[in-house]
Predict the structure.
Amino acid sequence: MNLINLILIPAIPLAVFLVLGIFSHKIKPAVSGVVGVAGLATSTLLSFYTAWQYFFVLGKLDGVYQTFVEKITWMQFTESLHIDMGVLIDPISVMMLIVVSTISLMVHIYSRGYMKGDDGYTRFFAYLSLFTFSMYGLVLATNLFQIYIFWELVGVSSFLLIGYYYTKTSAIAAAKKAFIVTRFADFGFLIGIFIIGFYTNTFDFQTLNDPQGPAILTWASSSFMGLSVITWALILIFMGGAGKSAMFPLHIWLPDAMEGPTPVSALIHAATMVVAGVYLVARLFPMFYMVEDGFALNIVAYVGAFSALFAAIIAITQTDIKRVLAFSTMSQLGYMMMSLGVSGFDGHEGVGYMASMFHLFTHAMFKALLFLGAGSVIHAVHSNYLKDMGGLRKYMPVTNITFLIAALAIAGVPPLAGFWSKDEILVAAYENSQFLYGIGVFVAGLTAFYMFRIYFGIFWGKETNYKHAPHESPFSMTLPLMILAILSIGAGFIPFSEFVTADKAGFATHINLELAAIAIVAGLLGIVLAWIFYKKENDLAFRFSNAFGRFYTWTSHKFYFDEIYLFIARRIFFQSVAAPIAKFDKKIVDGTMEGIGNQTVVVSRKIKGMQSGKVQDYAFGFIGGVVILALVFIYIWTN
Amino acid sequence: MIPGVSITEILTLTSILFFIGVYGFITRKNLISILISVELILNSSVVNFVVINKYLYPEMLQGMVYSIFIIAVAAAETALAVAIIINIYRRLSSVEVRETETMKY
């Protein structure tokens, strides 16, 4: 593989970030947009070239994709324990390169239209470049520490972009919330890394994932509370992944993150950064699978399945279209986690792993399209809320068609992209556990329902009285929509199982007709229900929600998780833990020190009268002391 | 080595010199006199150094060198003390040691 190419892929966005960031006040917006897009287009071309070389020319040896690593030692701790910096090329990192560069390029082009006239236009592009650089670094990382460094960098870029409208209080609160929640999760990740470093003496992915390596061979040698230490480390690492991928119960930041500009939501909070958690589990998949018979992997599966169901239920009741999409993202990420969790390793056993990566790929395309479409709608009506929309299909034909394509894709209607990947996930779940399969099918139905609820709500239904007639977005915004629509249709036909598999060998997949039929029926049922409820103005939905009563209220308040967390933070943590500790610090620690000082002052006030100010007195005291000492010493020496 | 003079005699002389200095230091009221008394104390110790060096270790020079050090330090100290005394005189129009009591705490 060509090392210069690989290094240029992240280096170009970094250079663009530095240039735009340092000269942000001197560069004209028109120039900065072109620089951003041109830089990223170059990176994208290099990524595609790398992918082509890897998958079709150089990557395969005896039918198995090889892993290429180029690295330099950065910090040496012991003989075997060192932190490296480098690039790692294997099927999933190449696949992620394509996802990141494609979506990022589309978002860059789209932002030139969406952000036009904004004061921080150049700053926005600088942040986007910083994010893209960090994401490339994360994808190409060769060891746990390198991935952690870039992991935090994407967290920072996400923080900066959510808080992009920094004059808005809610945006700042959302940015802080996202940063603190993910940071809390990353704390677990860091401890996991330390445990792994301590017990296996390596951070390197290849050594860790090697079935003959120290991590997998010796996991049973040390245990803690009934589980292997390595399993604990993997669970902690998954905690970091769950934070970034908004898995239950660390999901609360994702809906609020929608305060950021919509292109950012499409890039970071739908297609790339939030899949970092899935990518992390996939990166360590052999470890997850082989240590303690996949105990940690089962946790991944059930957390994923629960998050998928939980988020899909909440998504039905939300009225902010971006929040619906956010919960939809969470739900689909849950799908990917579940799929990884139920996967085996060799050959066709590894269908879950393949399906998860496949779904990551297709989901990136259609979810970015959904967000960009939603952004186009928001751009036209200046509101996020469903009640301010309706009947827009006449005004915005391109957005309408592309949004419909994306909605059909996520609903799993053949032959669009979502159908193929979702079908593979359901097959994998079916082979592992009927229960998870049932959840999967139910969530598929729910997904179709809530997605068409907002589709009909935006583009059909009763027309709202618009102040200005809405109009179609400019070409710079519709072009990415059209490209992504084509990708959403076509991405499903890629024979993914030949390229990206757990054992890197490739296998052939066949459509399981019965399971596919069940999934399609579930999806169509959701669409038809949404059609009945929301296509024409009627009170069916209202009566239905009333029938659910309290459950509906709970759901529309996202099961009160924000409130529970606030309660835990404020009432329990601040009042019962932090406040007493602060009191201890003020009263006892500070009190001791201040007391000593005050006592010194009091005592010295009392005894200062002993100073006469007469030099002779002092001299007399001094000489008298010397004489006494002399006598004492003479007495000692003479005895 | 001085012929006919023993070390005991010289040490007695320096001891007398020393205690004259101490007595003067404690009893004099004029700052200049106190300073002169301090010089007496210093000079007695300088003579001590020289004599002990000469009588006990005639082939070495440490005592001599040390006495030169003390003379240098004494000169510096005197210059400083005189400067302080001149300042006190300017402020208080007096070099009586009692007047300086106003400077306590």
